Amino acid sequence: MKTITTPISEEMASDLHVGDMVLITGKIYCGRDAVLPKICKLIENETLGEYDIDLRGSVIFHTAVSPAGVGPTSSNKLEIEESFPLLSKAGVKMHLGKGVIGKNTITALDEYNSVFAVIPPVTALLGENMLSQRLVAFPELGMEAFYELEVKDYPAIIGAAHNESIY
User: Ranges for the Fe-S hydro-lyase tartrate dehydratase beta-type catalytic domain (predicted)?
Assistant: First the structure.
């Protein structure tokens, strides 16, 4: 088991390999298909800083934040998977979700020293590991807005890293 604290350094990202079990502690962002294209647009327009979002060394969890808790959504949804390259280039070191991602996405992760980790769909367990939550951007999207969570010991398994995949 590897312990990861955010922000994730280049060295730590390089040391993550397919099949590694990890525990993530620190701040992570949450976004899924409704908001990630908007975050990518902010990157392209160089206006991400206006929302006080710093993606360097960050983790993005593919989830909505609701009163019922958080749980991973499928990372291979078109709007989510298309965001991997730009988000990784902007500094995201770990994309956290579930499902099979494509070969082109795996190659893009490798190009930017970023990884994809799968998280078990255990909403109740994850709730106990969440210390705080903050709405960061796009409140009009409700539970699919862009959130920042502070977590302790979030469990995950590296599913794609360094041009390899468990799938």
Answer: 6-158
Domains of the chain: 2-165 (3.20.130.10)
> Of 99-103, 112-116, 132-136, which one has max mean pLDDT?
112-116
Distance CA 115, CA 162 (A): 8
pTM (two decimals): 0.85
Return the HEC string of the chain: CEEEECCCCHHHHHCCCCCCEEEEEEEEEECCCCCHHHHHHHHHCCCHHHHCCCCCCCEEECCCCECCECCCCECCCHHHHCCHHHHHHCCCCEEEEECCCCHHHHHHHHHCCCEEEECCCCHHHHHHCEEEEEEEECHHHHHHCEEEEEEEEEEEEEEEECCEECC
Q: Are 62 and 73 in contact (CB under 8 A)?
A: yes
| CA–CA separation, 64 and 108 (whole Å) | 24
Distances in whole angstroms, Cα of residue 118 to Cα of each of 8, 13, 46, 53: 17, 15, 29, 23
